[in-house]
Amino acid sequence: IKTEANRLNRRIYAVLGGEHASMSAGNRISSVFDYILPGESEEIFLDILNILQLESMGIHKELNYNPSKNFNQCKSFNNIPDISIVQGYENTVQNWLFKYFPLIWTVKQKQLPFISFQGTRGCPYNCSFCPTPKYLHGRQYRRRDANSAVKYLKEHITKTGIKRVIFEDPTSAIPFDEESHAFFDNLSKNSISMKATLLVRPDLYKDKKLLELMRKSGVLNLSIGIESLNDDTRKVFRKKTSHYILSKSIEEFHKFGFSVTGLFIVGYDTENIDSFRYIKEFINETGLEKWRVSPL
Questions:
Q1: What pTM value is reported for the model?
Q2: Mean pLDDT per 10-residue run, the chain (296 residues)?
């Protein structure tokens, strides 16, 4: 497309950003791209758009852009992502069948609607298999402003009637973290009618007060990264957990009324075919309501 545009004397700027650029580090990237923005590229991308707009008006301004920088991080992401800008959003929520007979709409479309939400970015942990700290958001743990979160969730739940909310955060809450406590305390006091699923670490079970706040705010399901039941594999993954912690966490989560989804990874060199039998036994032993087994 860019080649054809150049032939017609039209200028097109090509930008490669986000995780695609981050995970391509060290590889040869096509010269067709004018800008390569690794990491969280929303803010720098807006800077580029503003400068290009000024240039179209005959105003020249330098972009403070370092192409060798390994990672970009947003200072604020209170309005990212906003599902209202997704193509088809308005048509769907205004659909007569969707508004008044959502169950029939769900069966007909073969889709269970949910609202996506991002409350944090970054992960302070360093699991060897996870791309989040290195390629996606970095290790600096940042939380969305609670007021913007309440506004976003209330607006879209009211408008769509969808109560099922999926938190996209790799680590939605950290035990004994003041900001995590304040965030879910704010949600619990604003009567947000949601049924949320969060991804958390098993050691969250130690923070009973935070679990109580999360439950009051409308969190119903906790997805925990069990990864492996093999001690050698967990060591390689740098997962500082144990069979006892995993079992204890599920027990405590159930006491607070959460359903639990166990996330397993199989296929590492330290494992064998018995891994599947161990997973089955663990599911039966702990009463996991849901589980997902993914190849490494």
A1: 0.82
A2: 76 76 62 78 81 79 59 76 77 91 92 89 81 76 88 90 90 91 92 90 94 95 92 87 93 96 91 90 95 89
How is 279-292 classified by DSSP, letter by letter? HHHHHHHHT-SEEE
Q: What H or E segment, with its residue span, contains residue 108?
A: helix 102-109
Residue pair 252/205 in contact (Cβ under 8 Å)? The answer is yes
Q: Which tokens go with 116?
A: 């996506």
DSSP-derived 3-state class of residue 243: helix
Q: Specify whether the CB–CB gap between 271 and 233 falls below 8 A.
A: yes
**Chain centre to alpha carbon of residue 186:** 20
Residue whose structure tokens are 């909310």: 165
Closest CA to 11 of 45, 55, 63: 55
Compute the distance between CA of residue 254 and CA of residue 248 in angstroms, rounded to an integer: 10
